[in-house]
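Suppose you are handed a protein chain with no further information: no name, no annotation, nothing but its sequence. What can you learn? This example shows the usual starting point.
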Amino acid sequence: MIRNPEGTGLSMTQNTEEIWRLIDAKVPEFTALSDRIWHMPELAYTETRSCAEHTAMLREQGFRVTEQVAGIPTAVMGEAGEGGPVIAILGEYDALPGLSQEAGVAEQRPLPGPGFGHGCGHNLLGAASLLAATAVKDFLAANNLPGRVRYYGCPAEEGGAAKGFIVRDGAFADVDIAISWHPAAFAAVQEAVSLANTRIDFSFQGRASHAAAAPHLGRSALDAVELMNVGVNYMREHMPSDARIHYAYLDAGGVAPNVVQPTAKVRYLIRARDLVELRALIARVRKIAEGAALMTETKMAAKVVSGVSNLLGNTPLERAMQANLERLGPPPFDEADHAKAAEFQATLSEEDIASAWRRIGLPMRKGVSLCDVVPGLEVKGAPMMGSTDVGDVSWVVPTVQARGATYAIGTPGHSWQLTAQGMLPAAHKGMVHVAKVMAGTAVDAIRDPALVAAAKADLAARTAGHPYEPVLSPEVQPPLTMSLGDTSRSAA
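A reasonable first move is to predict its three-dimensional structure. Written in structure tokens, the prediction is:
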């Protein structure tokens, strides 16, 4: 079923209307926060200025602030309220390399500088979540209600698995429910489908020699990496169909072909549907690496960089979030928003646009540039095959996520087009809309203990027989220098 605000027959409750008004009262400050973060894109674990902006806003809005959560310099938590249930609202603010782009321009125009950009919309993600948390804080105070709301400013979602380290440190131990969102083409409840993954660096140590005069004395680490890649390529035919394995050379041994390369390093990203399948694949990849070392008479060392669990859904929370979406209807985009989005659609292929409709589970409607419907929970699309560190939160706390419609339908994730749309009026409207969805869901949980109890029972049922075992073993530390090309702080 597809729903819009007209003719739903659903009345808006007074409580929900109040929380929405509290959101509207703070819109200028938080859209400005989002735009500031857009202008200072920072990669995983280097979000010093972005974290400082969120920390300053937390203090300005009256939260009790905890900095360096789990020992991570760019992680922050703000809490407000007393007693009652603890509601966590999750935000992010890391950017991506290679996606610098002039704002609002529908042609590729990178900005001067290092080339970073908010090509996944995390400038909006953090600001909307903090806006929602602020409105819930104000709602608790205005109604003299017991309850606590926490904003978790989480760095390094893009490959750094920060939430996994934060979960492992116990920062979610007393949380009752967690709420998050992600920028998207459509406004909907996020289907809880993602891949567990891990990043592992495989380093090979061989022996240098003159490649022409004494090749028999050399032992090539580069050969070891190439043999490992061949072995993994053959393994791909014999993996579960929804598993994924990717790799990138970190060190190819040098630029001199007349030297047998004594060192080489490759980073593998291994993904699987769940933690059981992931662990099995990791073991197989490690055996292939050991075999490559054996064949080349080199030494191999493996270091885990990061890892995340697959998402777990939560039916009671998803129904509560869906009810808020249906009361709100789609974001209030106007003709100018649609026209601007159409300019960006013109830079996309028909396949890009059709893929976005398939992913949300709706038939493609040509000429529609922005979200104008709210899909029902029963509408299922092509599953997302990416990964997120929200997965680790969902194993220890009942968790629900929204999609927030903030860009033109068909815009690929991690693209210059997405970066370019990050400060448009449509992005701001979608950000405010999803903040209302999250805040309304939080208020439902605060006012209805039965909802919290049902959410916890749902999580217990999903994890029965499969307790949470994090991908990140205790000795693995946050890879704080991963964006600088140095993962020496990570341990196997």
